[in-house]
Every structure is written in C-alpha cells, then in structure tokens.
Design goal:
The complex is a heterodimer. Chain A is mainly α. Chain A is 86% helix and 0% strand. Chain A has 9 helices and no strands. The longest helix of chain B is centred in the last third of the chain and has 16 residues, at 163-178. Classes of the chains: A mainly alpha, B alpha/beta.
Chain lengths: 219, 204
C-alpha cells in the first residue's frame, strides 16, 4: 500500500521531470547568489554558509508543496484515496515520503558541492549534509499539513508559506546550529538528536494531522 | 442493506433537499433523478462518505457509515464526475494503481483482461492524456470490472460514452445486481436496467 503510493508519485515525478529540476535549480541559484553578492570574504562566507543553505532548502522544499495534493485534487484521484479502506494517514505518509525523495534527496546530495563555494571545511560539509538528510523529511512532513489545509483555496500558495514557515523554524535553528557548532569546535550531537526528535514527532503526528485536514478540505 | 434516514443537505444558506428516506436491499438499484443543481451529486457524495449530511444518517447493515470508516469503504466503489485517473500515467498503470489504492491489488493480466473487456485493448500503454473523453470514462469504469465491492455509487457513469459502451455498462450493472450487488446512480440518459428491485428517488 505504502509502496504503491510512493511508486505512483515517483512515476509521476519521472514523467514530469521539469518540476523536479526547477526545485533543484532554484536551490542551486539561491545558494550561489550569496557568494556572488557578498564577495570573496572567506570568513564572512564561512559564517553565513549554514544559515544560507538551510534557508534555501526551506524555500525550495516549500516551493513544491502546492503540488503535493492539488494535482490529485483536480483530477479526482485524491477523492478516491479518501475512499480507500486503507488508512488515509498511511497514504499521506507515502505522499510525504515521495515528496522527500523527489525534492529533499536532490538537495541533500547537492548541498556539499554548493558548500564548497563558501569555503566550508570537509567536516562541516559532512555535518551540513547529515543535518539536511535528517531535516528535509521533517520539511516534507510538516509541509503536508500546510498543503492539505490550503487545498482548493485561491491564493493557497502564499498562505501555505505563512502557515508552514514558522513551523520550520526549529529545524532551521538546529540544522544550521549543528554546522556552526562543528565549525566552532563544539560537539553537535545535541543538535542532531533534536532534529531526530523533530523527525520522529512529525512522522507520528504530521500524517494524522494532514489526513484530518484533507477530510475537511474535501467535504 | 444501505439505508438513508431523513437526509438533508444544505449548501451555503440554501436547503437542497430534506427528509430523504430510502432503503436499498441486495440486488437493488436506486436511480436518483432531479434537475441540475437539485443535489444529486451532493447526495451521492454523502452516500459514499465524502461529506456528512446536514441532518439524518446513512446506515450500512444498521450501523452509521461514519462509525464504520474503512469497513464501509472496503465494500463500496464510487465513480464520480472527476475521472480519478492521472493524465501522465498509462491506462494500465492507472487501473492497477487505482485498484491497489482501493484495497484490491490486481495482476497485469487481470488488468489487461478488464481493459480488453471495456474496449481499450491495444491502448494499455498509452498515457491517459492522449485519450478521448469517452475513452477516459472507460478507463475510470474499468475499475468496476476488477473491484470486489458490493455497493457501487455512480455519478453520471454514461456521460461521453458511445452506444456500444452504454450497452456494455448496462450489461455490467445487470450482472452485478444479479449477483446481489447494489447500485446507486444518477443519469440523464434513458436506460433500462433489469433489477430485482428498482427505487426511483426524485429530488425536487
């Protein structure tokens, strides 16, 4: 069941690769703009790198949220999912995981390469990648709630950012914080544990909350 | 047995219908009639559990459907105005995925057989976006061939279908009713379906 929905969304993403690449290029460009505008001041770049990469990841992930449910809503497949004897939360979890595989994983893979522009040391690049790997699924899961709440609304795109961005803040703080801590020579385990805790919490609660919102949105 | 008790529907501050009562036994067909905007689709959406009635209750085997959730969805198939197919997926993928999500996985052979029956042989590998309206409708209706549910709720199933396809669907519905299934449908087309019991529900 979970496999079917993931397979379905991946198949759809493969047929519409432009959507995937738009997000990735958005991420690449936003991250690259900063070194170009600030200039080659290594120290400053190094200090701002974790924050910039993380903010760009938040925005890129949010950019694709609108499409998470709206395409299925328009062609009636979402309606059919609501009538499935399987649990709707499981379906939402599947969709969020597929969203992460399509939009999150490319960002994670790209981040260490982009980090070089900021003259980050190898170890910091490694920490940055790990935090993104743990943090981006949280973005997709929390984003699913926002996408479900704003489904079918006019101007839902702006509203979803207002709803979701504040909820992203804790992940942002600890994600960027872990990299800064590493560069300052302090341990970053606590940061990672906290992001892990966010991940577990959103794995449990976000699908359920998004499923309830979908039922309300489709009534 | 599917029962509706004193159902009412309110949209905005307009009351579309109220005090709708019916009871549908195994093998029974219910046709819902009424002019445009009289609440036919709203009634069907209530019957399948997508929306809640403003008043009254829908019961399946003497239990309210909202208390059954998954158990009710496992015996019910709804085909609405929207096709429920993805444009970018092929006919075959659409049928197999929608069946799997509806809780009954089917093999590629079963899907092929169903598509052949519904008149889409040779088009299994085409994406749905290149099909005509009638063919899209056939893809949606092909789900009826592979599902194992007893309650079928069909909202204008015959729209865009040609004469041959209408006959095909008519035969399919008759066979389903003969096997003890139930059908609730709306249609503006004249169609004679043989059934053990036929209920005509007129919405004002």
């Amino acid at each position: 069941m979970l496999m079917w929905i993931i397979k379905r969304d991946l198949l759809l993403a493969m047929r519409r690769q432009s959507d995937v690449f738009t997000i990735l290029f958005f991420f690449i460009i936003v991250v690259s703009l900063f070194p170009l505008s600030v200039g080659p001041e290594m120290n400053m770049l190094r200090t701002m790198a974790p924050g910039v990469v993380w903010v760009a990841a938040l925005l890129a992930s949010m950019l694709s949220l609108g499409r998470m449910f709206s395409n299925d809503y328009v062609d009636g497949t979402l309606e059919q999912m609501l009538l499935s004897p399987q649990s709707l939360s499981l379906l939402v979890l599947g969709k969020a995981l597929a969203h992460w595989l399509v939009t999150g994983i490319p960002l994670v893979l790209m981040a260490p390469i982009l980090g070089i522009q900021y003259d980050l040391p190898i170890e910091a690049l490694f920490v940055l990648t790990i935090t993104l790997l743990l943090g981006t699924p949280v973005l997709s899961l929390i984003g699913a709630i926002g996408a479900a709440l704003t489904l079918g609304l006019r101007g839902g795109g702006v509203l979803v950012s207002l709803l979701v961005l504040p909820l992203y803040i804790p992940v942002l703080i600890f994600g960027a914080g872990a990299v800064e801590a590493n560069m300052a020579g302090v341990g970053y385990d606590a940061h990672l544990s906290l992001i892990g805790a966010f991940l577990l919490m959103s794995l449990v609660f976000a699908p359920w909350a998004a499923a309830s919102s979908l039922r309300v949105s489709l009534e | 047995m599917l029962q509706g008790i004193n159902l009412a529907c309110v949209r905005g501050d307009r009351e579309l219908f109220k005090n709708i009562n019916f009871s549908l036994e195994a093998g029974g067909l219910m046709q819902v009639h009424g002019p445009n905007g009289s609440g036919k689709t709203s009634l069907l959406r209530m019957l399948c559990g997508l929306s809640n009635p403003a008043a009254g209750e829908i019961r399946w085997c003497d239990k309210a459907i909202h208390s059954l959730d998954g158990d009710y969805f496992a015996v019910m198939t709804y085909i609405g105005h929207l096709s429920g197919t993805k444009d970018d997926l092929t006919v075959m993928e659409n049928l197999r995925i929608s069946s799997a999500l509806a809780g009954s996985e089917i093999s590629a052979d079963q899907a092929k057989e169903a598509l052949e029956y519904i008149g889409l042989s040779g088009r299994e590998a085409l994406p749905v976006k290149v099909l005509s309206q009638g063919q899209r409708r056939r893809v949606a209706l092909a789900r009826l061939l592979v599902c194992k549910t007893s309650v079928w709720i069909l909202d204008e199933p015959l729209v865009a279908l040609d004469v041959a396809a209408v006959k095909l669907i008519q035969g399919l519905l008759e066979q389903h009713l003969l096997q003890g299934g139930m059908v609730v449908m709306t249609t503006h087309q004249e169609i004679d379906i043989a059934a053990a019991s036929i209920t005509q529900l007129q919405l004002a």
